[in-house]
Amino acid sequence: MEERLAKVCARTGRPRDSITLLAVSKVFPPSAIAEAYALGLREFGENYVQEFEGKFPDVKDLPGARFHFIGHLQSNKARRAAQLFTTIQTVDSEKLARRLNDAATPLDIYLEVKLSEEDSKAGCPPEELGALVSAVRAMPHLTLRGLMTMPPWSEDAELSRPYFRRLAELAREHGLPGLSMGMSHDFEVAIEEGATLIRVGTALFGKRRKPAAT
Ligand SMILES: *Cc1c(COP(=O)(O)O)cnc(C)c1O
Question: Which is it for strands 87-91 and 66-69: parallel, antiparallel or unpaired?
């Protein structure tokens, strides 16, 4: 993984420390998080509140470890998620943001943007992003870090490029520094387009046994 990262950094002139590697540990046991931690990883991504609740007692005392929620978050689980995670990457409505803010614990936030027409994809439509950015900026417990997106899945990483480019444009327009984009198969393209955080599961932990149901 670090080899692939070093190559793309060299090619793009990006410093390695301008890119956060988020280890997506969904479906894997707490021991996998502990092993990755021992190898130096500090940021972890999880998709399911309930699943992470089970792992939390085993990982909560790892010094400096940070846990990001990257799955679809239902409003009724927002309060619990705010207690378990340091960062919520999938905020896509003012209602959800308000629920998170009401938990009154400091949280880093990324707004998930819907850039494809797929019905299954969550996210804020780009034309509503301005209003959501303003609303979240006014919420005292939330710190807005940037934008997140998930292009339609394709084996061909090049097909993700227009989505990454569009997200980078939107982030610039709204003055947001963080860009969470790119997964195991397309993170190189994401970095070329300016990703500051890549979400990598399979390339670090191997294939997931259970499919990642959403
Ligand atoms: C599972 C997941 C990832 C990681 O995917 P890999 O292909 O295993 O790297 C990244 N982002 C989100 C939102 C995910 O659900």
Answer: parallel
**Whose alpha carbon is nearest atom 11 of ligand 1?**
199
The pair of structure tokens assigned to 77 is 């689980």
**97/68 Cα distance (integer angstroms):** 15
Would 213 be classed as within a structural domain? no
**163 C-alpha to ligand 1 centroid (Å):** 16
Tell me the two tokens of residue 158.
């090049």
Distance 102 CA to ligand 1 centre (A): 28
What is the 8-class DSSP label of residue 124? B
Distance CA 119, CA 100 (A): 25
Whether this model's pTM surpasses 0.85? yes
154 within some domain: yes
**β 142-148/20-24 pair status:** unpaired
Question: Among all chains, which residue has been given the structure tokens 């400096």?
Answer: 64
CB 181 near ligand 1, within 6 Å: no
CATH number of the domain residue 21 falls in: 3.20.20.10
Largest CA distance in the chain: 44
Domains identified in the chain, total number: 1
- CA distances in angstroms from 115 to 51, 149, 162, 203, listed in the order given: 28, 7, 10, 25
Burial of 3 (0-12, 13-18, 19+ CB in 10 A): exposed
pLDDT in tens, 98-156: 999 999 999 999 999 999 988 777 899 999 999 999 999 999 999 999 999 999 999 99
